[in-house]
Amino acid sequence: MTRVSLAPKAREDLRDALEYLSLFTDAAVTSLSDQFDDAITRLIQFSESGSPRPELGRGVRMLVLDSFRLNLYYVARPHGRRTHVTVIRLIRQERDVGASDLAPPR
Predict the structure, then answer these.
(1) What is the number of domains present in the chain?
(2) Cα-based distances in Å from 80 to 2, 3, 22
(3) Where are the beta strands (DSSP E) in the chain?
(4) Which residue of 72, 82, 86, 97 has the fewest C-beta atoms within 10 A of its own C-beta?
(5) Is residue 105 part of a domain?
(6) Facing residues of 71 across strands?
(7) Is 106 part of any domain?
(8) Is residue 34 part of a domain?
(9) Residue 33 sits in which domain range?
(10) Alpha-carbon distances of 44 from 85, 87, 94, rounded to whole Å
C-alpha cells in the first residue's frame, strides 16, 4: 500500500493555482482538481511512474499535468512494507527549476 502526502509548499502551490483559475471559470478549477486527483491515484498505484530528476535531488521524480502546464515533483520512499510518496511542489513548466526550489524552507 502506498501513502501520499503533500508538503506544505505543495499545498500552497495547489491552493494558489486553484484560486487563480477560479478568477476565470469553475470548469477550470474542476478540471485541475480532477487532474490532480488522477495524478495522486497514479502515484498510489505506481509510485515510481514519474520521470526521474536526479539533478533536483535524491529520489526526485516528476509527473506532468498537461492541461495546466504544471509539473508535480515528488519523492517516493519505502517505509516498511509500504511506500510513502511526498508531493514536494507543483510548478509551472515554463519555470527553470533547481534543487533549491524543492528544498524545504529553513
Answers:
(1) 1
(2) 11, 12, 40
(3) 2-6, 51-52, 60-65, 70-79, 82-92
(4) 82
(5) no
(6) 64, 91
(7) no
(8) yes
(9) 2-94
(10) 8, 12, 27
